[in-house]
Prior knowledge:
Layout: E1 2-3, H1 30-42, H2 48-51, H3 57-62, E2 67-70, E3 74-75, E4 85-87, H4 96-106, E5 111-116, H5 127-140, E6 145-149, H6 160-165, E7 170-172, H7 182-185, H8 191-204, E8 209-216, H9 222-234, E9 239-244, H10 261-274, E10 278-281, H11 291-310
Parallel strand pairs: 2-5, 3-4, 5-6, 6-7, 7-8, 8-9, 9-10
Antiparallel strand pairs: 1-4
Amino acid sequence: MTIRHPEKINKPISPIKKKPQWIRSKLLNSREFFITKSVINKSNLTTVCQEANCPNITECWSKRHATFMIMGDTCTRACGFCDVKTGKPDMLDPLEPYKISQATKKLNLKHVVITSVDRDDLPDGGSNHFFEVIKITKKNNPNTSIEVLTPDFLRKGDAYKKVLEANPDVFNHNIETVPSLYRQVRPGARYFGSLELLKKAKEVNKNIFTKSGLMVGLGETKNEILQVMDDLISANVDFITIGQYLQPSSKHYPLNRYYHPDEFKELELNAKSKGFLLVSSSPMTRSSYHADDDFKKLQSNRLKINAQSFS
Length: 311
């Protein structure tokens, strides 16, 4: 039985605030949008674009960009901000790695993002399945770069190392919010556990790009945001994304306020001053938004830094 966000059933209703004019979806090419949709549906694959009701789905699918969500559409956790359903997940699909690789080929993706639900029910948290998806996708798409957005593998020991063993190009794990809000927003996770995962990923593979995302508008203060930036820098994270939290329904964690685009620009400047290799900060920014273009920027920025160090 699947229950959508059971921990919210007895919580008070929080009316959704009207969106400001700068929060708008874009449809760039309807033909390409439906081609992407057709490939995903015919392959019987799950995307976080659909399951999490991403506001950028029309724009991204219009450019044949999609973020594949592996290991099913049901999460073992129930985060206050997330629209993915919660319950007892199905068994893993052994054909999923092949399906992902073929969908990547059909869409002619040069950069593919692979994420998953939390699978606390699995002894390894699903790390071996990540490994298989990455390896087979790489084998069938040798010129495609691969970015993973992983769960925290909390209490799974060194399971995360199996993901890194497959050698993805980008290792992403979202910190999501500030420590003071974790108990309400991300009750199944631990702030310092997520920081440690990002730090260890870089220690295991110094050449991999590490990345993390932060939502704003949940009631955090600017000083708390700046502290998260400092913590991520201490964990050697290369790339930070900062986007506006959009409350999925009246039963989800209540939106505190919308940030103005000028505030996102200020946060971007703050993050750049702290030394991140790349920063993406805007109301519509999400972890996988423009991921292909951002990967090229990461590569270019690293080359520039390396060239400066030898000059």
